[in-house]
Amino acid sequence: MTQNESTLTVSDPVLSVLNKKSVENLLSILQTGIYTSNNLLVLDQQLSNLINFLTPFSKLKEIGKFEKIVWLNNEQPWSDILGSFNGLIIMCRESTDNLNLVSKLINTLPKSIKVYLVVENLSKAFTYELNQELNGDLSFNSTIELNLESQKFVKLTSTVKLYNWSINPIVLDPEDGSTGGSVLSLEQPYGGLESYYTQPLEQISHLSKAFINLLQLSPHFTMGHKMLKLKNIYAKGDHSCLLAKIIQDEKIPDYLNEQMSPLESQFYLEKTKGNTDLVILERNLDSSALAFNQLNYQGLIDDLFKIDLNNVSIPKEETGRDGMLLEKLTLQDELYHDLKHLNFASIGHKLNQLAKYIQNEFSKRDSLLHNDQTENSDLTEIKKLVNNLGSLTNKQELIKKHTFISESILNSIKFGSTSTNPQLKSTYSQLNEHEEFLAFQNDLFDLEYKAQILKVREFIVKNFDSNLVLMGVLLVSIVNDGIRERDYEIILTEVTQNYGLLIKFTLDNLIRYHILRILHTGGGATSELFGAALASLSLTGHSNEDSSTTNQSTSFQGYENLNSLGISGGGVTGLKGNFTLIDKFFNLHPQEEQVNESTEDGLLIQEYSHPTFALPSSTVPLLTRIVESLYLRDFLTYKPVNNLSRRPNWDNLNLDTFFAGKSLDINICDTSDDKRQQQRGVEGPLSRQEYQYVVIIIVGGITRSEISCLKYLEQRINAKNHGEKKKKFIILTSGVVNNQKLLDFCSR
């Protein structure tokens, strides 16, 4: 079975259309744009898994008329590779590195070779840069006038044609047959961390376009009605507010003008009942979830073995000089779908239960088949069991697969290796660094600042993996609002002596992007931050970000200065208040038991009393709490804040005291608090839908721990709101991130 076939077996028929359209766009380029035969495909390695996830390479080979594939960044001389090929197909993403590699390759080609350059989501800026590097025929004015969405190709030189591969957000996480995948990703490099911290306007542009892709598809999953209709917009963070402004004031009006007549557009905007809340948050509001290792099943697999578009390569055994023998697996099966959100401690019990069930079914079959006194009623039972044999065998294979993954996780944490070789295990167990670092994370909030610093220095002395040391430094900084300058200088000296200058470069970038904070004063936390946050908790009136209901024409009054944003997403830290008080106010470490309202089996809310199952130290991700506070307030136990409105809101939560950046709360057409509307029982066409939707956009990437906790929140809201329409979360983001991607980006 190919990767694409295995995806489609569990993929939802609605949102998977986004993936299919991306494939169709690529195949159309190859089918109508490639005129030569005997071609060579030169591929950006980062695009390889994405293409293989969307469609088999065998189909591309047939349409693109190529047999051989080489990487764009290969180290061999191109003169030794090109041979007698008639055409060169280059597929790549936009980046400075690829710009240099492509120009170097094309400038060394003989004039007889035709070049078909296919760039994912091609921009005018990249087109201009390519034209300059290749001494092309385009002028600056003609580049500006290009319509890359509609043009079949752009002719740069007599031998080079440039194509725009327009790609939709990738559906990563199919949930059920009603709305489709809950996670849609742009699959940007490093999960979008690079573009967020260096070119946020580019990411905002792609996210706004992706939202329109979702809007365009929505009639298919809103039971045949027009499309998603926003009734509320919420945003926290300057770039989040800018994205909301672009979507509401520019993208949606442009889309409606293209798709509807003026009368239809007016009816949609003024008469159609809203069915969707749009919530936009950004990564710098919470770095803790990014710094922690993850304890949910999918998060652990990603941290240890790197999930790439639901593919993972797990070391199977050591092979001496040949290195590791890798087991390549696809994480798109039914059992993974059931297990991925669970805490890893639950996985063994679930697999054991399923194994016993299958063993019992096989035993029943064998007992009936070997019974000489079989009655007619038994024959019926045998027929039933034989019919179920195929599904039981498949489940048995899935149990073996996830048992292997679970054993590999345990070995990697406990011994630093997935090996089953006892001698190698013994060698690794002397270090035991991953297990010790996990224990440090679990104890983090119980340790004093000095003890945390001493623990990090102990990791350096023991020569732990440099990434573990870096994450230890970052965690200490986050929970203490920074590291004292003297302590940082000592740690910097020690890590530089132990690991070399590259680690200093990584630390410098963490500081540059305001992820790691250095305190130039004596205290563990600055007194002004502590005082401001403490004062906010004593407030009883409305906070300065409380927003009143506004109409669309004035929805962004006061946000004109957002037009000047975009130089850097990490220009300021997202946290404005003291982390200890933020932790306490948002109850990130809940203690009291929570009563679960739902009795439906298989739900996360039946497994766990709080969403503390995905991160060490029983920590709830802060971004999850920010979303939760819109709909539920019962978790605010330190300073209870009642929600006085049926409409979701952030009133009285003092978000602007805790977090930097603007806050946005716009009521477009939510009549939840209008008693006259409720009494009249007004039912618009969209109100008859089974679901209400919450589109959550995370600028800068989302962790798998946050995905699982948002799934938990979705279930809890639906269990709490008996008799009301169920809410369905759709997460749209630049990519999936974790601490390894953060460090990889900062070490560049």
TrEMBL record:
It comes from the Eukaryota. Pfam families: Sec1. Transmembrane segments: none annotated. InterPro entries: Sec-1-like_dom1, Sec-1-like_dom3a, Sec1-like, Sec1-like_dom2, Sec1-like_sf, VPS33_dom3b. Signal peptide: none annotated. Belongs to the STXBP/unc-18/SEC1 family. This is Vacuolar protein sorting-associated protein 33.
